[in-house]
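Reviewer 2 asked us to include a model.

Predict the structure of this chain.
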Amino acid sequence: MLELRPNCEVCDRDLPPDSNEAVICTFECTFCRPCARNVLSDRCPKCGGNLVPRPIRPVQLLKKYPTSSERVLKKSGC
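Predicted model (structure tokens):
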């Protein structure tokens, strides 16, 4: 089950579970599209893998399978 992290790890922008702006890598590092494109060149700084659109969890499943509330921010930058 994906965590669906709540923010971009570069700029700390909120990325709610229904956001079309969220992208992830295979390790679920989470970024907003502008940071992925303009800062990271569409590559994860941790694993070097590509970034893909994060799936949207249907609203009716959010209660049973809630999203993560833990914010991840790369303090040293990406």
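Residues 33-38 form the longest helix (6 residues). The mean pLDDT is 94. We have added this to the supplementary material.
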